[in-house]
Amino acid sequence: MTVVFDRDGEDSESLRFGPAAGMAVMESLGIAEMIDDACEWDRKQRVLTPGTAIKLIAGTMYTENLKQAMHNMPLFYSGSPPDLLAGPKATADSLSDSAFGRALETVFKADTEKLFCSICAKVKAQIGLDPRTYHFDPTNVTISRSAGDGYGELPEGAPIPKLGRSKDGTGGRVQYSVSCAVDEFGLPAYVRTCDGNTDDTEMISDAVRFIEKVLGDKRIVAVGDSKMTHWNLVEHMCSHGTHFVSKPPMNFADGARGKAVEKAFQNRFSAIGAIGSRKNSPTFEAYDTDVVCKTMTLRFIVYRRTDRSKTVRHMKRVEGIVLDEASKSLAHESFKTEEEARAAYREAVKGYAGKAYDLTPTFRSRRSYKGGTEWKATFKRTFNEKRAYEIAAKDVEVLITSLPRSDITNEDPSEGATVRDVMRIYFGQWKIEGLFATMKSGIGADEVFFQNPEREAVMMFIIALAALIRNVIKMRLRSEHGKGIGIPPNITAERMFLLVQNVLVKYDREGNRIYMGGSPGDKKRALAFMDALRIDPTTLLG
């Protein structure tokens, strides 16, 4: 059989299934309309509405690759039907980077902090979620722009990037601080792009107060690390009925943490069991007590692992590596006197003497090749397993909370929480790290290049919005696993994008029909995903 190449071929309009599905989910949730309603813009003149522009920019983030740069947006959608994607008046020229940039500046004026929080709340209400717990933490995002390029005059409210050198010394950086919160379901709830030099405690405090204000009388449980536990915020949360779970810093409230630890060792720890769904999840024991902190009494939980063998193994490996390096370095040095050699030894093992290893130093004098006498210092290390276990037993962590005690687990922890409940709530802090991973590694938050702070701030808003939709996709797909429609276990949005990367959603303009192109197996999988996501097929292209 001879294959013939048709140079003219067929004209077609299409879009990859991943972006089409992601934007269809956004469409079903009414996100573009929410954005349009929040913005002030010329509805008669503009072809590309702010909400549609945001949806299309987010569409580039629903693939197995990092998002597209703004100047690639026209190329990304070049083969797609613009009138379906962006409205009946839209043409290919309507999807220009200048049109997208203008939309970003319009959205910036609408207060993205408030808008994002509102969108998240409305989306969760639509999918039947009513979160109570919120995890807070800030992160840094380094922007791909030369630190030597100035912005000029900035509009009111625009974040100011931090200019300087990156930590690894590789050239300049333009860095923003991004304050975030996720709920107990792992869905984003709050995002704000801040000045690059904004203090972490300030960002967390502002975020907690903002969510309190938005939710009104609805009480929440705020969760964060030690950056959350500064007295002004603790006092504020307690007076406003906002419960919290956090790790107190060492110096919190005149040594309250130390008092809790002292009580724990004076009394007895209680077995808590394993926390986590994995078979090898660690088991814990804990001590629950109250400590007076300035003007109020707060609850402290001191806990430690019951299986300390892993801690001991880690101690043996890490301390051994450090001591080996110190030994090699010390062996290459020579000293004029024995006193200098002993002082150098003490400095080399500083912080490790009396810990998991017994150290045996040796000091010898010898004739120097330059004449006279020089001293050498060496030491041997021997692992002391008994002492290592004793040290591991004293290795405790401390939580502070305002949640009242309970002997039973309540659906709403503000009505009372067991020790296990408090620990489980705090251990859920990994969920916000999951958001950061999606924003940075999954979407590419550090590939933002505008030379315009308000556009950069809105791009972070879009990235967080895309992370919200990706999480909604994951939740919907996993809820359909095992129902016989072919949804793989433990599916994620990224995995879905990868599995359907060769499927195109095509538009037959003459017949006014939408269909899929690809191999039979790939199309079948894409149809299963579409059904699981409850997507109206006619909205796949807008």
Give the topology.
Elements: E1 13-16, H1 17-29, H2 31-38, H3 50-59, H4 73-76, H5 82-86, H6 97-108, H7 112-126, E2 133-143, E3 162-165, E4 172-183, E5 188-194, H8 200-215, E6 221-224, H9 231-240, E7 243-246, H10 256-266, E8 270-274, E9 283-293, E10 296-305, H11 309-331, H12 338-348, E11 357-367, E12 373-383, H13 385-393, E13 397-401, H14 419-427, H15 430-443, H16 453-479, H17 493-499, E14 504-508, E15 513-517, H18 520-532
Parallel strand pairs: 2-6, 6-7
Antiparallel strand pairs: 1-14, 2-4, 3-4, 4-5, 7-13, 8-9, 9-10, 10-13, 11-12, 14-15
Tally of alpha and pi helices: 18
Strands, total number: 15
Biggest pleated sheet:
10 strands, mixed
From the helix content, strand content and strand pairing, which structural class follows? Answer: alpha+beta
Regions with little confidence, pLDDT below 50 for 5+ residues: 164-171
Relative helix content: 40-55%
Strand content: 15-25%
Q: Evaluate the radius of gyration.
A: 29 Å
Report the mean per-residue pLDDT as an integer: 90
Distance between the termini: 41 Å
Shape: globular
Q: Which labels suit this protein?
A:
542 residues; 18 helices; 15 strands
Note down, in words, how this protein is organized.
- With 542 residues, the protein is α+β, with helices and mostly antiparallel strands.
- The protein has 18 helices and 15 strands.
- Among the domains are: 13-112 and 458-539, no CATH class; 309-393.
- Strands 2, 3, 4, 5, 6, 7, 8, 9, 10 and 13 form a ten-stranded mixed β-sheet that branches. A three-stranded antiparallel β-sheet has the order 1-14-15. Strands 11-12 form a two-stranded antiparallel ribbon.
